[in-house]
Amino acid sequence: MTTATTTFPDTIFDTRESQVRSYSRAWPTVFDTAEGSWITDRDGNRYLDFFAGAGALNYGHNNPVLREALVDYLTSGRITHSLDMSTVAKGELLETFTERILRPRGLDYRVQFPGPTGTNAVEAALKLARKVTGRESIINFTNAFHGMTLGSLSVTGNSMKRAGAGIPLVHATPMPFDNYFGGVAPDFQWFERVLDDSGSGLNRPAAVIVETVQGEGGVNVARPEWLRALADLCRRREILLIVDDVQMGCGRTGPFFSFEVAGIVPDIVTLSKSIGGYGLPLALTLLRPELDVWGPGEHNGTFRGNNPAFVTAKVALDHYWSDDSLERATLAKGERIATRFRSLAAEFPEQLATRGRGLVQGLAFTDSEQASKVCGTAYRNGLLAETSGPDDEVVKLLPPLTISESEIDLGLDILEAATRTEVAR
Amino acid sequence: MTTATTTFPDTIFDTRESQVRSYSRAWPTVFDTAEGSWITDRDGNRYLDFFAGAGALNYGHNNPVLREALVDYLTSGRITHSLDMSTVAKGELLETFTERILRPRGLDYRVQFPGPTGTNAVEAALKLARKVTGRESIINFTNAFHGMTLGSLSVTGNSMKRAGAGIPLVHATPMPFDNYFGGVAPDFQWFERVLDDSGSGLNRPAAVIVETVQGEGGVNVARPEWLRALADLCRRREILLIVDDVQMGCGRTGPFFSFEVAGIVPDIVTLSKSIGGYGLPLALTLLRPELDVWGPGEHNGTFRGNNPAFVTAKVALDHYWSDDSLERATLAKGERIATRFRSLAAEFPEQLATRGRGLVQGLAFTDSEQASKVCGTAYRNGLLAETSGPDDEVVKLLPPLTISESEIDLGLDILEAATRTEVAR
Amino acid sequence: MTTATTTFPDTIFDTRESQVRSYSRAWPTVFDTAEGSWITDRDGNRYLDFFAGAGALNYGHNNPVLREALVDYLTSGRITHSLDMSTVAKGELLETFTERILRPRGLDYRVQFPGPTGTNAVEAALKLARKVTGRESIINFTNAFHGMTLGSLSVTGNSMKRAGAGIPLVHATPMPFDNYFGGVAPDFQWFERVLDDSGSGLNRPAAVIVETVQGEGGVNVARPEWLRALADLCRRREILLIVDDVQMGCGRTGPFFSFEVAGIVPDIVTLSKSIGGYGLPLALTLLRPELDVWGPGEHNGTFRGNNPAFVTAKVALDHYWSDDSLERATLAKGERIATRFRSLAAEFPEQLATRGRGLVQGLAFTDSEQASKVCGTAYRNGLLAETSGPDDEVVKLLPPLTISESEIDLGLDILEAATRTEVAR
Amino acid sequence: MTTATTTFPDTIFDTRESQVRSYSRAWPTVFDTAEGSWITDRDGNRYLDFFAGAGALNYGHNNPVLREALVDYLTSGRITHSLDMSTVAKGELLETFTERILRPRGLDYRVQFPGPTGTNAVEAALKLARKVTGRESIINFTNAFHGMTLGSLSVTGNSMKRAGAGIPLVHATPMPFDNYFGGVAPDFQWFERVLDDSGSGLNRPAAVIVETVQGEGGVNVARPEWLRALADLCRRREILLIVDDVQMGCGRTGPFFSFEVAGIVPDIVTLSKSIGGYGLPLALTLLRPELDVWGPGEHNGTFRGNNPAFVTAKVALDHYWSDDSLERATLAKGERIATRFRSLAAEFPEQLATRGRGLVQGLAFTDSEQASKVCGTAYRNGLLAETSGPDDEVVKLLPPLTISESEIDLGLDILEAATRTEVAR
C-alpha cells in the first residue's frame, strides 16, 4: 500500500503555519525530494545545497548507506522508541562511539542522551556544570549561539532571539571571542583580569561555554592557541570548559571533534545535528566521568531513545570514521573553497573578507545588505546558502562533507557570479 | 546489504552511559524488537507494554500502517531533514491537521513547529505568552510536569528535577491543582483571591499552564467544571491559558484534545509524544491566530523539519481520526481498566484508590513502597508499567490506544496479582 | 547665634521636590513645630497626630525626657557619627537593651546595627537567613510591607510599589495571612500542603517573614494561635522565622515585642521606627546567637553609628520599659479606641468593620473611597490619620503611646463625625 | 537634668553585638567624644581622624556652627520627624540647595528624599532608571561600591560583600573602570564594542552607575576625559548616566559635585554621607526633571523627613558653599598630602604608588599586608586611617575638609614613619 498523498492549497503555509517560520521566506518554494548535495522542489527545480540542514547533513541528504541500515532496521521489527531503556541499537551505538571515536583519541567521556536536539544537550551541560560546582554563573562569548530554550538562550548572543525570551536573561556574562578586537587587545585580557580581581563584580563562573568556530555568529574561527589558552585558564581557575560542538563537531571542520585541532580536552562536550547521520533528531552530552553526578532521571525527556537515529549514527561512524579519509577530504575541500574565496576577496579588499575552517567557510561583506542579495541571487540560480553574523553580513557555506569537487565548483561559480554582480554594482 | 551488527559488552550501559539513565534500572534488560503492545528483549523475553513510550506510542509500537508510509517515504527519495522550509510532507500534514482535527472542532489555531520535543513546545509557548503580554510570571500547578529545559523546568513541580537546574527557578508561582485539598477548599479560592488583591504580592501572570490530567504528577484528573472555571478565570483576568497536551493529547483521554471534555478553547496548546504517531520526535505549539506575533526566526531549532515524523503524523490522523471510533474505543477500554481497578480498590479501601480518564488510569497506593514493588513484580511477570506521583505512589497505566481487550485483561491479571500479594502481605 | 532662617517660595516643594512625595499631598500644608501628640504648621494651625511618624514616634513628638538627654549629649562634645566603632553611647544602649528588654523576657539575641532604617534591618535579615540556610526562597504574606529597597520590596505585597522595582521581583512566594479567607479555610492549609508535597513546585524556603499586625496592609491582626502555629511549622520544617517588628515593635501593640502575645521566639527580629525613641533614624536586627555567622563587614553602611539615636533609644528604654506601666496603658488606650470603633461599626454594619491590637486600630470601610474622604475631612478638622490596606480602605490609627485619654477622645470625636457624615451620605 | 550614664562591661560588644562589626576590630577601643579632626576614647586617648566617618564628616566632628543650629532647632520645639510631609526645615533646605548649589552650576535637578542612607539613594536611582527606560540591566564598573541592600549590592564589585547576598546577583554587568588595564587598552573598547554588536549577548542597559573616584575600590581616580567620554557614550546610546556621589560629593574632591571636574551633567546623582553636614543620616537622589516619573509614594521610607539633618545640611551649605574658598582649600590640602605621598613613593618605587583627587588620597602598597600593618601602627600612634581596594592594599586618607595644615602634617608624619618602617623592613 502506498499512502495516499493529500492535496494542499499553496496558501497552507501562510495561513496555517506560524509567522515564526524563516527559511521558507528566503527560499519560497515547496521542497520534496533530496539526494546527496541536492534538493528538488515539487515543480522539479533542483537546488545545490550549501546549507546541509544547518550542519545536520554532513553525510548528505538521504545517504544510501545510512538509509539502507535505517530501512532494514524499521522493516525488521526492531524497537523504534525506547526512552532511556537499554536497547540493542543503543548498545551498538555506544560501543561503536567508544571504539571509533573515543578510544582512538584517548578520550573517556560518559555519554548522556539528553533529548534529541542541540538545545537539550546544552541545557543538560549547563545544569550539570552548575550542579557540580555549586555556582550559577556561566561565561559565554560574543556572538555565541547555543539554542532557543531558556537556559541555552541565556548564553546566546543574538539580541533579537534573546528578546524572544520575554524575561530578563541572567546568570551569563559575555566575554570577547577570539579576535573580537581585531588583534589589538591581548587574549583574555579582560576575562583574566576580572577573574583575578576579587572586586571586579563578576560572579564566579561554573563554566565557560564556547564554540570553536561560531557558525551562526558569522563563521568566527578561534585559533588553536586561543582555545588552548582558554582551556588552560579554565583549568587554573577550576572553571568547567564546555565545548558546544553541535554544529562544528562530527567532522565539519575536519577532525571528528572540532577541538582536536587545539589538542584540548573539554570537561563537557555537546553533539547533535550530524551525530544522527541521516538528519534524524539525536543529541549527546559527553561528560568527564568524574562529573557524572546526575541522579537517575534528574534530567529526562521523551525522545531520548530515538533508535532509528541510533542506527544511522552507528553506521555513519563505522562508514566514515574508521580511518582519516573523511577528515583529509574535508580539509582539502575546505581549502578548495577557501582558495576561491581568498581570490575573490583579494579583488574587492574593501568589500569582502573571508574566513573558515574545514567545510565551514564564510564570505564576509562590508555591506551586509549585499550578503543577503547574493544569497537571494544564488537561490534563484539554484544554490542554497544562508547568511550569518550579527548583521547577517556573512555568506556561510556548510556543504555536505560528501560533496564532490565538481559540485563545489558549480556552487562557487554561482556564488562568485552573484557576488561580483553585487559588489561591483 | 544488511548492516553488520556490533557486539557490545553487557557492561556498556554501566560503563559508558551516564548515571542519569533511569528506566533501564527499573527494567534491567536489553530490548530489541517491538510490535503493537509488546516489546521483546534480546533474550526473547516478551513484555506487555502498559507504558507505551510514556504516552508517545498511542498507536502501538511499529504500527504497520504508519511504518508502511514511513518506509515508502524513505525509499522514495523524499526529503528527510528540512528545518523550517516548506515541504510537501509538511504541507500535507498541515492540511490533514486542519481537516481532520481543527475544522471539525471549530478551532483555528496557527501551528508552530518549535523543535521536536515536548519541552521545545512548552518553551515556545511560555516565550510567546510573555512576549504577547509583556509580563514575566507564569502560574503553574502543584505536581505539574512540563519538561527539563530551564523554562519548562521552572513550571514543573518535582523537587528532585528542579534541584537539577543548579540555579533558583523563578518567574513561576504554583497554585493548587483540582482536588488538591480533597474537596474541602473551594476551587480557585486562593488563586482568585490573590489576583483580586492588589496587595497580595503575586506578580501579575502572563499565563497559566495546565495539564488536564497530570500524568507524571500521579494521574490527577481535573474535572471539566474545574477546567471551565479556570478558562473563565483566565479570560476575565486577561491571562493566557496554555494547555500542555503533550501527554494527554492525541486521544489519550478519549477525544483528540484532552480539553474537549470541558468544552474550552485554550489560547495556546502544546502537542508532542504521540503527534508523530510512530514514536518519532515531533512537537507542535498551537496558537490562537491573534497571538502569532513571532518575528521570523525568533524561535528556531535544527530538527523542526523532521519529515519522516510529518509523514507518520499525517497518516495517523488520516487513519485514526477520520471518525470517532478511536475515541469511543479508548473510552470503553479505559472503563474496562477502571472497572477492574475500582473492584480491586474496593477490596482494600485503606490501601488503594483509583483514578483516571480514558486510557490513562492510576492505582494509588497509601504505602508508596508498595507501588514500586508491584511494578517490579509486574516486570518480572512480563508487564511494563511505571509509577508516578510525588512519592511514586501511583501505578500509572498508559497502554497503547490500539491495545486489545484481551491484552488489557492479561496485563490487569498480572498487575492485580502483584497488587494483591503486596497489599495483603 | 541663631541660624538665619531662609525664606522659600510656597512653590518650592512643587517645583524642586520629586513627584514621589505623598503625605504632603494628603496634608497640603507646611509643618513647623511639634510636641507630644500635636503638630503645628507655620500658619499656626494645630493638628492632633494619630499617625505618629507611621509608628516612629511612639513616645510622641519631641519627648522632653529624650530631648534633654539628646541635647545634653550633643552639647557635651560626645561623638555623633561612628560607623560600627565601639562607643560609650553604643555600649550603654547595648547594656540597657540587654537589661531592660532581653533579660526580663528570657531572650538572648545578638544585636546587629544594619544601617538606620527598617529596610536596612530587613535586608540584613534576609541576607543572613539565606546565608545560614543556603536557600534563596523566602515566604512572605499577602499584604505584607517590609520596605522599598530591592530585597525588602521583593517580600512586599503592594503591586504599585512592586512595579516601581522595574525588574521582576523573584525569590519570594506569598502565603495567605491569618484570616485571609475570612475563616473558611484552615490555617496553613496551603502552606503546609506545598511544603509536604515534594511535587508542589515550591522552592524550599530559607525563611518566613511576617508582621504580627500588618499596618500598611490594612491593620490585619494575626491571632496568637496563628502565630504559634506558624512558629511551630517553621521549627518543624527547619525554616527560619523572621518577625518584622519595625512598626509593631517598641510597644505599639502593648508589650515591647509584638510577638510576646503569642509566646513565640522568632529566629530573627527587625526593629526600627520607634527604637530610636525620638524619631531619629535607627534600626536593629536581632539574631539568635547561633545564626550570627556574619563575616566582619559582610554587611555594612555609613550610618550604623548614629550615636544621638543610641542616646535617645537608651533613655527611652530606661524611662518607659523599667516596668509594665506603658504596656498596660497602651492596652487600655487601645481598648478605649476599639470600644468607640465597635460602637460606630455596629451602627453601620454593612459599611464598617473594626480591628486592631493595642494602639494600632483600624476602621475598615466597605467603600474604600469613604475612608479617604474621612481622612480628608479629619485633616481639615485638625486630625492627622492615614489610610492603609490594598485599596486604602482602612483608616489606620497609630497615635503616640503617650497620648492622653482626652486627646484620644478629641481625635475620635473628629473621626466619628467625619465617618458618620460620609457613611450616612 | 543629666541623663544617668549606664555602666557596661567591657565585653558587651563581644557578647552582645553581632560578629558583623568591623571597624571596632581594627580600632579596638571605646570612643566617646569628638571634635573637629579628633576623636577621644573613654580612657582619654586622642586620635587624629583621617577617616572622617568614611566621608560622612567633611566638616569635621561636631562642627560648632552646625551644632549650634541643630541644638537651637531641637530646643525650639521644631518638628523632628516628618516622613515626606512639607516642613519649614525641608523648604529651607530645598531653597538653599537650589540657590547655593544648583543655580550657580546651571543645574536643574529635582530632589528626591529616598530615605536617609546612601544605599536608599542608589536603590531609588536604579529603580527610576529601570522604570524610565523599561530595561532591567545596569552597567557597573570593576571595584564599584554602591551599598549593601540588594539592588545596590548587585552593582557592587566586592566578592565577599556580594556573597553575603545569599542569592545570585543579577541584572548588572561590570565594565572596566578607567585605567583598569594600566593604559594599554583604549577607553571603552569593550563597552562600546558590545553595545555596537547586536550579537554580543549584552542585555541593553537602562543605566550606567559610576563613581568618579572609587573610594572603597582603592582610590581609583577616573580622568575627566574618561568621564566625558562615558557621558558622551551614554547620551549617544540613550543609556542613563548615574553618578554615585555619596562619598565623593559634598566637596570631597574639591568642587561640590565630584563630576564638575569633567564638565558633565549626569542624569541622576546620589548624595549622602556629608550632605547632612553633621554626620546625621540624610540622602538625596537628584533627577533631571524629565525623568521624574515617580508616582506618589512609589518609593517611600520612614526616615525621609529627618529634620535635624535638614537643618545641619542647610547650614553647612550656607556656611561652606557661599563661595569657592572651601573648594580651593580642599585642593590645596589635597596637594599637600599628594606631594608628601609622591616623595615617599619615589623613595620606594617598587613598593608604593600614589593616587587621589582633592582630599581623597591613596597610598597603594605592592604588598597588601604592609598596608594593613601601616594602618595598625598608625592607630597605635594615634592616627585613624583605613585600607581600601580589592586586596585592602591601599591606605586611604579621607580627613575632614576642615582639617588644619598642621594636623595634616602631624598625621602624615605618623603615617610616613609607619610606612618607612614597614617597607624598609
UniProtKB/TrEMBL annotation, chains A, B, C, D:
Keyword set includes Transferase: yes
InterPro entries for the chain: Aminotrans_3, Aminotrans_3_PPA_site, Dat, Ectoine_EctB, PyrdxlP-dep_Trfase, PyrdxlP-dep_Trfase_major, PyrdxlP-dep_Trfase_small
Known EC number: 2.6.1.76
Keyword entries, A-Z: Aminotransferase, Pyridoxal phosphate, Transferase
Cofactor: pyridoxal 5'-phosphate
Pathway: Amine and polyamine biosynthesis; ectoine biosynthesis; L-ectoine from L-aspartate 4-semialdehyde: step 1/3
Family as reported in the entry's similarity comment: Belongs to the class-III pyridoxal-phosphate-dependent aminotransferase family.
Protein name stated in the entry: Diaminobutyrate--2-oxoglutarate transaminase
